[in-house]
Amino acid sequence: MTVLIQARGLRKSFGPTDALRGIDLDIQRGEVVAVMGPSGSGKSSLLHCLAGVVLPDSGTVSVGGTVITALSEARRSALRLKEFGFVFQFGQLLPDLTAVDNVTIPLLLGGMKRRQALTAARGWLDRLGLEVAADQLPGELSGGEAQRVAIARALVTQPSVLFADEPTGSLDSLAAENVLTAMLELVRKAGTTLVMITHDPRTAAYADREIIVRDGQLAATDRVGIK
Fold first, then answer.
1. In the chain, what percentage of residues exceed pLDDT 70?
2. Which ranges form a coiled coil (predicted)?
3. pLDDT beyond 50 at 225
4. Residue 112 lies in a domain
5. CATH of the domain at 9
6. Which of 7, 63, 76, 145 could, after both became Cys, cross-link 52 (CB 3.0–4.6 A)?
7. Domain range spanning residue 160?
8. Is 157 helix (H, G, I), strand (E, B) or coil?
9. Is residue 57 assigned to a domain?
C-alpha cells in the first residue's frame, strides 16, 4: 500500500487550550483507521485538520501528494466535495428532504444533472438495503436507517477518503453493528480509506489500525485484527 494521507508536526490551539501538540501520522491508501482517546484528547481536532476543515497553527497535511494546508479555503472546499466523504454521529440529514434527495446533495453540488443524481442515489440506497425507505423523510426512519442514509450520502461521490466521527455513537448495539458492517463492506470493496473516531473498543476492533490520542499527542498506534 502507498501513503495517502501524511501529517507532519500538526499543532492546533483554541485559546489557551492546546488541542494538537506536534502530531506526525501516515495513513495508507485503503486503510481503515480507528482514532480513540478520552474526551478532549484532540481526536476531533486531528480529524478536522486531516480533512482540511480547519487549518493547523503549524505543520502540514498532504493527501495524495497535494499539500492541502497550503490551499485556499475555496480549493479545500472543492477538494472535500470531490475527494472526501463525511459521516457524523447524528447523521445531520436535512429533515425536509427525502432520503434519496439527501443523498443527491453532493452530486448536485458537483454539477451532476438531477435525473442522473437521483439514479446514482437510489443505487447507493439499494446497496445499503434502503430501497423502500428512499422516499421517506428522515423523521420517518429509525436511527440505524437514517445513519445508513448518511453513509450513502458520504459515499455517493465515491470519495478517496471517508471521515467518520462516532458514526455509531447514537445507536443501540444491534443497529450499530449493522451500520458498521454495511459501511466497512462498502469501503473495503471500493478501496476507500476510512478514518473513524470512536470511543467503542468493539467498533475499533474492525479497523486495520488503532490510533490512541491523549493530550493532543499520539499515545499509541497499533495494528488490530482485520474483520
1. 95
2. none
3. no
4. no
5. 3.40.50.300
6. 76
7. 3-95+144-223
8. coil
9. yes
**Is residue 69 pLDDT above 60, yes or no?**
yes
Cα–Cα dist 139/195, whole Å: 28
Domain count for the chain, please give it. Answer: 1
Q: Which of 18, 57, 24 is nearest to 40 (CA)?
A: 18
Q: What is the pLDDT of residue 226?
A: 40
Specify the 3-state DSSP secondary structure of 167. Answer: coil
Classify strands 3-14 and 17-28 as parallel, antiparallel or unpaired: antiparallel
Beta carbons within 8 Å of 190's beta carbon, 6+ residues apart = 155, 158
H/E element holding 67?
strand 66-67
Per the domain annotation, does 135 fall within a domain? Answer: no
Quickly tell me which residue has 502540514 as its cell.
60
Nearest to 34 by CA among 202, 195, 223: 195
Q: What is the pLDDT of residues 139-171, one digit of tens each?
A: 999 998 999 999 999 999 999 999 999 888 778
What residue has cell string 498532504?
Answer: 62
Mean pLDDT of 50-58: 95
In-domain check, residue 111: no
